[in-house]
Amino acid sequence: MDAKRVRDSAVIIAQVMNPQDANPAGNVHGGIIMKLIDTAGAVVATRHSRCNCVTASIDRLDFHTPIFIGDLVFFKSSLNYVGRTSMEVGVRVETENLMTGELRHAVSAYLTYVALDKDGKPTPVPPLILETDEEKRRNVEAQVRMRLRLKSRCKKPASSPQQGY
User: Fold this and answer.
1) pTM of the model as a whole
2) Is there a domain that residue 165 lies in?
3) Is the pLDDT confidence value at 17 over 50?
4) Domain containing 44: what range?
5) Does a structural domain hold residue 134?
6) Domains identified in the chain, total number
7) What is the pLDDT of residues 136-158, one digit of tens each?
8) Is residue 111 exposed (0-12), middle (13-18) or buried (19+ Cβ within 10 Å)?
9) 163 lies in a domain?
10) Does residue 159 lie in a domain region?
């Protein structure tokens, strides 16, 4: 399996936010943005693996500023880390006010996807080629997050069928 570069699977998705995307406060509903983040991340994971990919976790999703109806929103997504069957994708969400040209960094998110074979089982993915200092820095930070995820997973008590909501 040949290694692939970060730029080979990176995507930028752009969408104008319309009135049907609003929450009761009149801003764009956070759930709309979360869905588009997941879509952009899944595209990157699928492009890298050329397999069906499912969302395994969302490590961080930080809203820095509201997104307004009429804004053009960019979902800039690329791989940070590749394991055996999983991939961490970083998504940076930026908005542009089309009337003023003002650009704002609105959201940052880190998501992990798992590649699945035709039987729905995890399958190996190509290694990642890191070319720039920025890609190397992001990879090191992603490895730290991965270790923290695994450490956290090991500490969780097993749930019983009686526990629930």
Assistant:
1) 0.89
2) no
3) yes
4) 4-154
5) yes
6) 1
7) 999 999 999 999 888 887 776 65
8) buried
9) no
10) no
